[in-house]
Give the backbone structure.
Amino acid sequence: MSDIRPFHRFARWYDLAMPTVDETPLREALGLAERPVRHGVDLAGGTGRAASGLQHVEWTVVDAARGMLTRARQRGLDTVQADAARLPFRAESVDAVVIVDALHHVADQDELVREASRVLRPGGVFVVADFDPDTVRGRVLTAAEHLIGFESTFRTPTSLAADVRRAGFSTLIPEGGFAYVVAGVKPSER
Ligand SMILES: C[S@@+](CC[C@H](N)C(=O)[O-])C[C@H]1O[C@@H](n2cnc3c(N)ncnc32)[C@H](O)[C@@H]1O
């Protein structure tokens, strides 16, 4: 949880420093759900930068940094302060789980994937947008984050997709390259 404090401290400047989220691949990935996506959870969702652009879904932003959630609430989003790998939600209670530019900050990534599987309804979709450390820009980003003190662990899309598949999802990589998207669909009940 050591990557939390800087986000809490710099929350008020976060949106000014960050580019807007490219919503197109996220929308495409959400479209893979095999059920209507009404309620979604934006894990480590910070100020709600991603959720606020993905309309027609009722989002709950989960983050461990209180300051980030204050900004998300100012955007009109529901928030829950929690570890993204220990979700205070009932099993099979949401239609989508997304995590944008944040998986690399979460210490227990395997548990996060298991939690996404637990809280999703059958047919729901899990969407991860992150950065490939095996690209040139990914290597620079990894070095820069470690230099400023983050404990970031970046995953390649193929290794992440394999773990998501092992957790029971059918997986796709709708977007490859430096900024990739991995999607997993929880099997529908028969
Ligand atoms: C780079 S920001 C991304 C925020 C948002 N997803 C976005 O795209 O703007 C990383 C976020 O992850 C949160 N975070 C890091 N580790 C976490 C954890 N274990 N549980 C919940 N939130 C976490 C931080 O507080 C921060 O808000």
The chain has a mean pLDDT of 96.
